[in-house]
Amino acid sequence: MRLSKTLLPTLKEDPVEAQIVSHKLMLRSGMIRQLGAGIYSWLPLGLRVLRKVENIVRQEMDRAGAQEVFMPAVQPAELWQETGRWQQYGTELLRFRDRGGRDFCFGPTHEEVITDLVRNELRSYKQLPANFYQIQTKFRDEVRPRFGIMRGREFLMKDAYSFDLDQESLDNSYELMFKAYQQIFKRCGLSFSAVEADTGAIGGSDSHEFHVLAESGEDAIASCSNCDYAANLEKAVAGWPDVVACRPTAQMQKVATPNIKTIDEVAGFFAVTPDKTCKSLLVETDEGRFMLLLRGDHELNEIKAANFLDGDNFRLMEPEEVKKLTGVGVGSIGPVNISLPIIADLSLKNSSDFICGANEDDFHLTGVNWESDLPRPEFADLRNVQAGDSCSRCDFGTLRLDRGIEVGHVFKLGDKYTKSMGMTVLNQGGREQTPLMGCYGIGVSRIVAAAIEQNHDDNGIVWPIFLAPFHVEILLINPKEAAAAQLAEEIYKQLQESGLEPLLDDRNERLGVKFKDADLIGAPLRVVIGGRGIKEGAVEVQSRVDGSSEKVALDKVGELLINRTKGLLQES
RNA sequence: CGGGGUGUAGCGCAGUCUGGUAGCGCAUCGGUUUUGGGAACCGAGGGCCGGAGGUUCGAAUCCUCUCACCCCGACCA
Questions:
Q1: pLDDT confidence of A245, banded at 50, 70, 90?
Q2: Chain A 272..291 CB hits on strand B (< 7 A)
Q3: A200 pLDDT exceeds 80?
């Protein structure tokens, strides 16, 4: 591609709206432009990278035996009503009507559409297992779009759906996808981690997320220092070392604590560490209201709590509601003498002599103990793990927390959709059987941003070879120097003919401008061609990756660039 | 959804408090000189100041409404 004939609007300054490095660099290098909140146009440079990711995904999906299809982005409400998700999905689902007043949505995902397709087309167990995928534009009306393409509302996603006759076969399909995903992210040059994830409201047995580790990540990932356990914080479980229960030593006492409300204030007031306190949270689900107890230094994991309580519409009660229900402000509620079902976090099992609210404004109880002061409640894992917690899978490890960008998610869905939408095939015995489903997503556009988060320096992007929009940038210092221009053209042609993608900067710009842009754009290799080099009989080949450069004889340059690039492509 | 902020040339901003014919830097176009790490000079083009309504002789500026975008929060007892 010739830069003189390409729309590549680079920016010198960081746009004010960009917070994270990938967003800044995508704007500055002219890859994308914003059209509205969470909605972006892809310019030539960005699109080239997007297509690279897409092709890697496509190749690996095909290799894993999945079949590509292409489904509508716009979906009729009826399908979503069949599975109940028209009601469930909430405001993230972009809904609209056609001229006839019929309800539609812009698909945020395609379980309904694919299930509708296969229930009409698949009849026999002999057609299973089957796995269909597409690469499609999705729309999710995010609460808060941010970070450019990273959490956009409109985005490009690869979604795949497998159909199997039985669990064993589903397990196998899942495993195939899991391996394909590892291959995909590896080829994208990403350092990633597969972690156990919560299955959410969708249910099902297994789920893994693939995370690119990066500081800007929106998810917290727990991983073990000793074994290969890794899980999303939403799901991560800490080990429960067999601490011998401390024997109660204190009598329960009511203490006046004027204006002492938060755990920190309580711990400060009594001069103890927060783990000696117990925090009480009131929550509500369709099943009723509950009090949850946590150690003062722990955070509630709402997903775990919601899963445990097993009622829909889990939510924390508002302070005013708590006041109305108990007559006490949230800072002073506690588990002693309260007429609500209590569930306590496992970490409180062996607690003794702890401090909690007294159910009376501005009073707390100290020296509280199970049995003597209140009955032992039901215990469950309700909290977020913390760095340093012991691992639940092995004996020696401790957990650490990192930030991750979710780029892929694999799910075993079971029969949720096939059952509610009445998809069956005839099994070997001639009976109707509901197949089991798996679904597998990859954030194609997000990968572009994630790759930049992991591959950049102060001057711009440093593309991994498989995602690079161009393999080699030919930097022609002055297009008016005939000999240099001719050499640049020759190399350009030579690279193209050998299947490489070169970028020729043939603009009539100053050298500094060209170098700055080249750094921004981030082609792995660069060759600088100018009159001086020609005179010396050698030109400079530079590596964007390590900044190294070497002089190469004029007649050897093309060959060297080709070999170097092919070497990189093979290594990766 | 709550709170905060910003909308003025392609980009970054000043001007708004205190009303009086809209500016700066970069970018763009023409010219001259330059040309191995974001050039210099001369000249030029480009704005219904987010939109609507109002106050006023007069509104980017004051008032009302509205739209868009950005940031923070929506994990706390």
A1: low
A2: 279-282
A3: no
| Domain harbouring A492, CATH code | 3.40.50.800
Tell me: pLDDT of A202 over 60: no
Q: What is the pLDDT of residues A14-32, one digit of tens each?
A: 888 888 899 999 999 999 9
Q: What is the CATH number of the domain that holds A431?
A: 3.30.930.10
- Do A337 and A427 share a domain, yes or no? no
Whether the pLDDT of residue A42 is over 60: the answer is yes
> pLDDT by residue (tens digit) across A361-420?
889 999 999 888 988 899 989 898 988 888 888 888 889 888 899 999 999 999 989 999
- Strands A502-505 and A472-476, by their bridges, are parallel
**Local structure of A211: helix, strand or coil:** strand
Scan residues 519-538 of chain A and list those with Cβ within 7 Å of strand B. Answer: 519-520, 528-534
Q: Which residue is nearest to nucleotide B38 (CA to C1')?
A: A513
Instruction: Judge whether A105 and A95 are in contact, CB under 8 Å.
Output: yes
Decide if pLDDT at A242 tops 70. Answer: no
Q: Dihedral sign, CA of A71, A74, A80, A86?
A: positive
Q: Which nucleotides of B are covered by protein (CB under 7 A)?
A: 1, 11-13, 26, 34-39, 68-77
Give a yes or no: residue A464 inside a domain.
Answer: no
A355/A416 same-domain check: no
Q: In this structure, which amino acid lies at residue A328? A: V
Contact flag, residue A541 CB and nucleic strand B, below 7 A:
no
Q: How many domains does chain A have?
A: 3
ipTM of the predicted structure? 0.90
Tokens of A529: 């061609």
Specify the CATH number for the domain of residue A373: 3.90.960.10
Same domain for A375 and A409? no
Phi-psi region of A444 (alpha: psi -120 to 50; beta: other; left: phi over 0): alpha
- Domain interval for residue A411: 17-236+401-452
CA–C1' span, A219 to B42, in Å?
A: 56
Instruction: Name the closest nucleotide to A220, judged by C1' and CA.
Output: B75
Does the C-beta of A15 come within 7 A of strand B? Answer: yes
